[in-house]
Amino acid sequence: MKPHAYIGLMSGTSMDGIDAVLVSFSEGRAKVHATHTVGYPDPVRHQLTKLSQNQGTPDELGAMDHQVGELFSQAALGVINSAAAREVDIVAIGSHGQTVRHQPRDKHAFSMQLGDPNLIAENTGITTVADFRRRDMAAGGEGAPLVPAFHQAMFGCPSKNLCIVNIGGIANISCLLSTPEEKIYGFDTGPGNALMDAWCQDQTGKSYDENGNWANEGRVHQGLLGDMLSDAYFALPAPKSTGKEKFNLGWIKTFIKRHPDATGSDIQRTLLELTVISIAKQLPQSNDLKVYICGGGSRNRLLMQELRRVCSPFAVSSTTEIGLDPQWVEAAAFAWLAQRTLNKQPGNLPAVTGARGKRILGAVYWP
């Protein structure tokens, strides 16, 4: 009998492309059957960045919703067409969409993801679940992060203390603890790759700093680092979440005006250190804590090196060691959330998002 599998589609705040994973779930473990990635063309990435900064018309927003929906469809079809897809029964697609604005603390709170799920269902002929964040927000939550529930289901162990840190454009943390007082908590720690990518693009024309090579040419500017760490977001209590509407190129330039002696590579190195420190300061104090990294940041050699240094004596490694490749954790999470939705099971953790209670997340688009 073929195992029931789900497709997870994910494009995070880095806005570099769409990850698609074909995955099945059994006994609290995820089995990856196939993967596929569709990169965003430069004009799409540029337009998405503009929209995330409130620079765009309703026509541009609607057109991009359609265009991203077609690209998400391509990602789903790419993973479906792989040889491994014939070995499973695909039940549904869970599509995160592409976040362009996330404003959980406004009077009229909202979170907006593009990538029309009607197109995905139409183009693939597969039931599609999307719009996962807004039901949690309707219940008074932040709508993010949602992945700690998945981290708990896949990686939680009642006898171990561990943290899963996803470093995408924004970094979020899931602390899975064995202490009875606080079994799990999670939130967005702040910038992951978003600031490093924005500064690298602005200064070099490259979309990211491979392995932190440019950052490695500079030094940490302590004055600039301290100034950045004084941003009120870092001192906010959880639950909290954020996005590129806050941590963007404009945010960087506000601070560097006050530190004209910082060189381009110094700023890049300082932004990397900002990501490291803002994660490390949020880790619980536990002698036996283990930290596992997933997301694009896991591929930045210098970032991982600095995390190991600053987080010592905690052991820092990638989620590969606990059974899931770091590139596919987020996409697998939204496949899992789709399964939860279709089974009428809640997908949020109120202790993480701040919602009034557990809720079934997402809207279903039938083929």
Describe this structure in words.
The protein is α/β, with parallel strands linked by helices. The protein folds into two domains: 179 residues, 2-Layer Sandwich (Nucleotidyltransferase, domain 5); 176 residues, Nucleotidyltransferase, domain 5 (2-Layer Sandwich). Helix content is 37%, strand content 23%. The protein is built from 13 helices and twelve strands. The strands form two sheets. Strands 1, 2, 3, 4, 5, 6 and 12 form a seven-stranded mixed beta sheet that branches. A five-stranded mixed beta sheet has the order 9-8-7-10-11, with helices on both faces. Helix 1 packs across helix 2, helix 6 packs antiparallel against helix 10 and helix 7 crosses helix 10. It starts with a strand and ends with a strand. 51% of the residues are buried. The model has no long low-confidence stretch (mean pLDDT 94).
Radius of gyration: 20 Å
CATH superfamily of the largest domain: ATPase, nucleotide binding domain
Run of helices and strands = EEEHHEEHEHHEEEHHHHHEHEHHE
The major pleated sheet works out as:
7 strands, mixed
Annotated CATH topology of the largest domain: Nucleotidyltransferase, domain 5
Straight-line distance between termini: 23 Å
